């Protein structure tokens, strides 16, 4: 079992990035031109203009070649598409009256491309009457030619994990895949093809200032070194090409279909697409460790294409609310344990078990080479759980009894507020009862995983078995706190703010678990967490307010009344002393 995909959280991240790009772009565009310190008088830089005027006539040349740098303009076989007299910024002409044109052709596959070679497309826009070949005197003009190139095929990693049944040594994997894994290794780079691609030319005449174009737009706006003006932006749009529609290029294929479309695009809409491909310049991580998985990207696109617009709008609003609740739950959880003075009524064993749970999840995702960002987030969660241990137990280093005579021994001791109260007795009792249920379930799940699930080795089996067990039955560890509440007939010691925020997030998860396609186990997990929280609410209702109970700050109503009475008695005495003072 792997981590359940959460498509609506991916949508939230995508929309957040779009908003950031739009905000940065708007801020830069309305600001004054930036002074150039290199000029003698520090004069402001002169705003530039688009080299292609509005409604200018232009010709489109599209060449397909194996060369990354194209120069063979005389090769007629390389010319894939030639279209004359396009109108820059025109939205009314074309086959469908939207300014778009389309061209389809099947390409013969060169032998090198069949063997994981690359195939490039070179696009040239020239003002009407000019040619992109710089060797043609009188027909070529630098300021009248816009060039952009792109690799048509896409290299994708195909990972093969050698798994087998640990008892029989057999595997259900395809024998051909096993042979390829033995010859190419566990990771194979395969060239893939998608038959559709759109060439967008941005209809933009903004007076950009060189050096002040915000990222990631600065990667696309190209200025002429001599005139200082900028070329029109040519953008290759493949956003709606789903990963599942790509297919591998091999020797069984003889031709490759290619459908090219030319369409104008507004600056605002282009920024939305550009934001999806933007990569932060502060990101020092390799690209493959930070990218979303292909499945996540496809889930976003499918949600945008197939989801009702009203439901999609609701998704965006609730996603923002979900993020706020996540932050508030985290904040109140830290505040609760940082200011906690008494452990009466709290299950310390549940905190310790939470550390074990986080450690298993971290080791599992490391063993399965999960996304680096996910690994970091789980590691931070483990550190927070370890920090909680220092709040519920007395932790010290014993330098007298060292491990192997070198390393100090780490000693854990229950706090006095936990031992002296009846909480420890009820906590031990709850986990003893719980073990009668958990150990048989763990044994049965271990046998099932060993018999019917393939693993890389015994280490992977242990981690996979523990992770799957915790994913399935982990909610049972929430029940000891319910048992302690029942025995103490009190819930005043619980962090109700944190629990409320987490419960609201769980309800939101319930909503999206049944709206967006998700595994059944994920839906059941959301439902069972709701059941446990409703039991908490029921206990809060039946256990009325009692001034003798200790709240989440470690104080009771009796103590507060005593402090108030003492302060009231001390106030007149202080006033009397001040009155009789000579």
From TrEMBL:
Per UniProt, subcellular location reads as:
Membrane
Its cellular-component GO annotations read:
endomembrane system; membrane
Q: Where exactly are the transmembrane stretches of this chain?
A: 310-330, 346-366, 372-389, 433-452, 458-479
What membrane topology is given? Multi-pass membrane protein
Q: Which Pfam families match?
A: CLPTM1 (PF05602)
For this UniProt record, the keywords arranged alphabetically read as follows:
Membrane, Transmembrane, Transmembrane helix
Please name the PANTHER family in this protein's record: CLEFT LIP AND PALATE ASSOCIATED TRANSMEMBRANE PROTEIN-RELATED, LIPID SCRAMBLASE CLPTM1-RELATED
What family does the Swiss-Prot or TrEMBL record give for this protein? Answer: Belongs to the CLPTM1 family.
This one is known as CLPTM1 regulator of GABA type A receptor forward trafficking
Organism, scientific name: Tetraodon nigroviridis (Spotted green pufferfish)
